[in-house]
Amino acid sequence: MPTYSICMTALWRTLLLLFMPLVLLLSGVAGVLVAPPAAHAAAAYIGEYSPNTRIEMRGDTIWFVRPPYESRLLPTTDGVYIFEAGWLAGRAAKFVNNERGGVSILLRADDGNWNEFARSGEIYTDLDPSLRAALAHTVEDQLRLRGLPGAVLYVHIDGQGEYIVARGVADRVQGIPAVPLDRWRVASVSKTFLAVTVLRLFDQGILRLDDSVEQWLPGVVPNGANITIRHLLNHQSGLYNYMDNYFISLVMGNPSRVWSPYELVNYSNLYAPHFAPGTPGRWRYSNTNYVLLGLIVEQATGQHVAQAMRTHLIDPLGLSNTRFEPDELYPGKMRGYIGWRDISDFNLSYAWGCGSIESNAADLGVFMRALMHGELLSPFATQEMLRFVSVGGEWNSRFLTYGLGVMRDRMSIARDIRGNPRPDELGYVIGHTGALGGYRSALWYQPQRGITIAVGVNQMYTDANYIATATLDTIYAYQERTGTISVPAEGAIVALPAAGQ
Fold first, then answer.
1. Would you say 123 and 179 are in contact if contact means Cβ atoms under 8 Å apart?
2. Are 134 and 473 contacting, i.e. CB atoms less than 8 angstroms apart?
3. Which superfamily does 183-482 belong to?
4. Is 188 a known active-site residue?
5. 493: nearest Cα among 433, 428, 432, 441
6. Alpha-carbon dihedral of residues 69, 71, 76, 80, nearest 10 degrees?
7. Phi/psi of residue 440, each to 5°?
8. Are residues 425 and 413 in contact, defined by beta-carbon separation less than 8 angstroms?
9. Could you give the CA distance from residue 294 to residue 327 in angstroms, rounded to a whole number?
10. Candidate list 188, 268, 356, 441, residue with the active-site label
11. In degrees to the nearest 10, what's the CA dihedral of 58, 61, 65, 68?
């Protein structure tokens, strides 16, 4: 073979060796050599962002959604993502921690600078910026003081607007930041949802508040002929609370077990009642009451309690983030903790009608405002709901009274910014609290100023009322400083009767 041919053959071999990796890379064969980061590397950034933006995981791909626009985000090798389609196609984006402890989505401009496009942590509305800042600071202070993983706060002030702020983390392990539209188990706030469903059935003439349990559930509880629906709603039935320490130990020992509501009632039936139904001056909080109410709703409507609440309450209000566990399970809620133990995957059938609703701050706010603005019940049903009875100092509460699925309590907001006593009525609120399954909730309405507050925390050991009380005090301090005193919306409840009325 001529020398020239040998040299050319060697040259081609050299060039082939040099360019083969590039050829393979371009053909996709070399993916094992240079692979972009997996899409799930952005799992920590899944959630809701302001304004009106959502990051989703669909299978193994990550998606950017700002309705009606959506695009898959394609990962690159340097932590940057590229929009695949639509008006942002080809644009680069990345996630960074922002100065408020949340996450910001940055987009790269044509000049190479990175500009903020959306952020987690808060939803900006028409509340005054200084009040928003004060409320955010209030949540941050409470997280630090209470050692909370995360918290979400909703505030609506009639005539002024609303605000939602989230701080901390929704998931300790993955470090996923809490965002304003995070869902959590609202625990006993579920009782208000179920009570309003019962009262709507009352308004429709389907049942009466003085109907007996025996009429609707023959033979289910001893002495059911003397226990009325009203007794169940306001915890004057005397029935034993099935959710005692021993029962909770059974749940903790077998968290995946599915409990039927009749099992829960049967457990309660093993114990003698605390007092005869409707005994004057006697009151005892019992989750058994609301399991029985759920069963009565099923008998009255012919629907599962979850579907009945959806038909009569959740769907008419458009509460798209409100669901009944475990019948309507969706991924993506905040993780719930007892201390450091994550118990958010426990099967919630053990709570059933007394605490199985999962919701978020915005939905809770819509529900409470609709209830307090007279949009859900007739005036007569509302009057019945607000017939409060003394709880006899239960839970060491000096001012707490109980209506039909709602509490009335007085918050500690005693002095104004000048140190003068505030009027007593400014401390009174109506709503409900909850503690269950790794979460604490508080949902309140202040009638004199038309203020709605919803709080969710993902730590069982810390009362959400700490944040709710600090929030009301912050709002009053702002109103006193600026003179912008709020007034309730037209048609709203503005006065609450005293206990026993």
1. no
2. no
3. DD-peptidase/beta-lactamase superfamily (3.40.710.10)
4. yes
5. 428
6. 20
7. -130, 145
8. no
9. 14
10. 188
11. -70
Q: Can you say whether residue 276 is alpha, beta or left, with left for phi > 0 and alpha for psi between -120 and 50 degrees?
A: beta
Q: Which helix (H) or strand (E) holds 482?
A: helix 465-482
What's the CA gap between 166 and 139, in Å, rounded?
A: 8
> CA 188, CA 286: separation in Å to the nearest integer?
11
In the beta sheet, which residues pair with residue 454?
154, 443
Q: Strands 428-436, 53-58: parallel, antiparallel or unpaired by DSSP?
A: unpaired
Interatomic CA distance for residues 67 and 76, integer angstroms: 25
As a whole number of angstroms, the distance between CA 133 and CA 477 comes to 13
Give the pLDDT score at 442.
98
Q: What dihedral do alpha carbons 267, 268, 269, 272 form, nearest 10°? A: 130
Q: Kindly indicate the confidence band of residue 24, based on its pLDDT and cuts at 50, 70 and 90.
A: very low
Q: Does 36 sit behind a cis peptide bond, omega within 30 degrees of 0 on the bond before it?
A: no
Mode of pairing for the β-strands spanning 53-58 and 61-66? antiparallel
pLDDT of residue 50: 78
Q: Report the Cα 289 to chain-centroid distance in Å.
A: 23
Distance of CA 499 to the CA centre of its chain: 30
Q: Which parts of 318-461 fold into alpha helices (H)? A: 361-372, 379-385
- Kindly report which listed range (77-91, 183-197, 253-267, 442-456) carries the lowest average pLDDT score: 77-91
Query: What is the biggest distance separating any 2 CA atoms in the chain, rounded to whole angstroms?
Result: 117
Amino acid at 25: L
The C-alpha atoms of residue 445 and residue 493 are separated, in whole angstroms, by 9
Can you give the pLDDT at residue 328? 65
Question: What secondary structure does DSSP assign to 175-193, as a single string?
Answer: TEEP-TT-EEE-TTHHHHH
Burial of 370 (0-12, 13-18, 19+ CB in 10 A): middle
CA dihedral 26, 30, 33, 37 (to 10 degrees): 70
- The DSSP secondary-structure symbol of 71 reads E
pTM: 0.81
**What Cα–Cα distance (Å) separates residue 267 from each residue in 75, 225, 262, 394, 418?**
54, 19, 9, 23, 54
Q: Amino acid identity, residue 326?
A: P
Locate 107 and state its tokens.
């987009």
Amino acid at 312: H
Q: Can you give the pLDDT at residue 29?
A: 35
Give the tokens for residue 199: 């009262």
Grouping H, G, I as helix, E, B as strand and the rest as coil, residue 264 is helix
Token couple for 142:
């409470």
Positive or negative, the CA dihedral 430, 140, 339, 438 is positive
Cα three-residue angle 316-318-321, rounded to 5 degrees: 130
Environment class of residue 258 by beta-carbon count within 10 Å: exposed (0-12), middle (13-18) or buried (19+)?
exposed
Q: Which two tokens stand for residue 454?
A: 């919803």
What's the rounded Cα separation, in Å, for the pair 178 and 143?
12
Residue 186 to residues 74, 231, 479: CA-CA distances in angstroms?
A: 36, 23, 29
* φ, ψ (nearest 5 deg) of residue 45: -105, 5
